User: Fold these one by one.
Assistant:
Number 1:
Amino acid sequence: MNDNSRYLLCRLDELADPGSKGNMVTRGDAVQNIFVVRRNDRVYGYINSCPHTGGPLDWVPDQFLSLDKRHIQCATHAALFRLDDGVCVAGPCAGDRLTAIPLQVESGNVYLLAGRPGHEG
Ligand code: FES
């Protein structure tokens, strides 16, 4: 279900555990490139933009995780980010963080909540 307060991104069982999935969403006139990552039954969402150069993190669609699947990994210069808060723990932008987006998981569905990225909506 999509309404003014939330936007259906995917079903939880579409995400591997751990796993990731990219998505383009339209909010107002803006199109946003976002992605979600899953670990156990927790899902985290971020804008698909590396704080190092602003480029996208994925090198193939829906692949945002490192080989060991413990971190989000930027495809360009291999920066590593924690799944749960998007903080860069290794690489050229260490200490910076991804821009979080507010999500809700309900009845097996993953929703993007209304509101500006990085703010509670
Ligand atoms: S663009 Fe992501 S680490 Fe350089």
Number 2:
Amino acid sequence: MKVKVDYRKCLKAGECYYNHPTIFQRTENGYPKLLVEEIDTDDLRQEVEEAIEVCPAGAITLEA
Ligand code: SF4
């Protein structure tokens, strides 16, 4: 599975990179950059699911 961020929805709230720095990294303009795209372990999947829950913009998705 792949994690995606919809930058048209992202509010730069930072919940993803502050809480899940193994997957998301803050960039200079405040948007998250993906450090990992392919989600191939249960641990990563759990982290992404948590990030999806806390993202206030609904900008993070996990796609097959
Ligand atoms: S938590 Fe959501 S709104 Fe906030 S920076 Fe990450 S993707 Fe953007």
